[in-house]
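dumping this here before i forget
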Amino acid sequence: MSNTPMAASPLTRAVLEIDEYVSGLGWDQPARLFALVDTARLRTQEPALAAQLGLEDASESAGLTPIEQDELPSGKPLDEFLGTIAWPDAVAGCALSVERLMLPPSAEAQVPQNLSQARLATWVAEHPERQEVRMTVAVLRDGGRESAVRLREKDSPTEVLTGPDLVPGLAEALAATFAD
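structure:
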């Protein structure tokens, strides 16, 4: 994609490509799951699919191609759904893009104790310092991780924060989809 830095690792490029794609769909989107496949392997083993994805003439051979999966089931908690996933060997990694409300660390001391999940979600949604964010987290079968976080109030490709440890809990849940 146009805003993806070429000097970045293949995993970082894949995360930024997914972030850019989902950003183009606007906010208030459902969570989206992607398989990450080795681009060179895809071209060799699935040339028709590679052509359909516009990859047949790509000069880059050491990349990852994100392939969006079916829509996630509504009404099922994300952690429960992720616990049901198993990937075939051809999938090198996976990524998830999800929107959430976050509070700054300064608000942590204000969180009321002993709230149910539903009441805590309501409390966060009503907090004056809440931020709407889109998190795109990717993991590789070999343990590699990368994340991109975009604030709704700073919705610009130049304002996307990246790093391997930005959303560790979600990265762990995605990595578990590759456990035997």
